[in-house]
Amino acid sequence: LQVFLVEKTGRRSLFLAGLMGMLISAVVMTVGLVLLSEFAWMSYVSMVAIFLFVIFFEVGPGPIPWFIVAELFSQGPRPAAIAVAGFCNWACNFIVGMCFQYIADLCGPYVFAIFAALLLVFFLFAYFKVPETKGKSFEEIAAVFRRKKLPAKAMTELEDLRGSEDA
Q1: Is the separation of the CB atoms in 59 and 5 below 8 Å?
Q2: Single GO cellular component annotation (predicted)?
């Protein structure tokens, strides 16, 4: 199902929607935990927020980075890039899993505010730096990054090869 959804809507928009949904869910979880002692029904709000958090993760930040990493690198460095991405993914999962209880003990009901703040940073980074890769070749994606770093007159390798054929 995710593959069809990604192809229809695009990687970047799903990634951003997932991050924003997770951010809102984390804020709702924080509010639910803070108000739990005053309103017993806040436990249900918190549970719904947790389910939504997981759903939004599965729509965006769970699978989309695997698509994007595979599309951002050419055939040569792609296996190394995927290995580094996998290592970072599992290392962060391990750190969160090992440290969450200690952070929860320190922060109390505000523990998910940390996640909300990080999700805001991730959302802003993705909004300004992550390109849409749907339907684009590696050369087109690389050209997007080159335009941001090189002067407008810089040529891609493909354009350079075409130019030498015309001469």
Answers
A1: yes
A2: plasma membrane
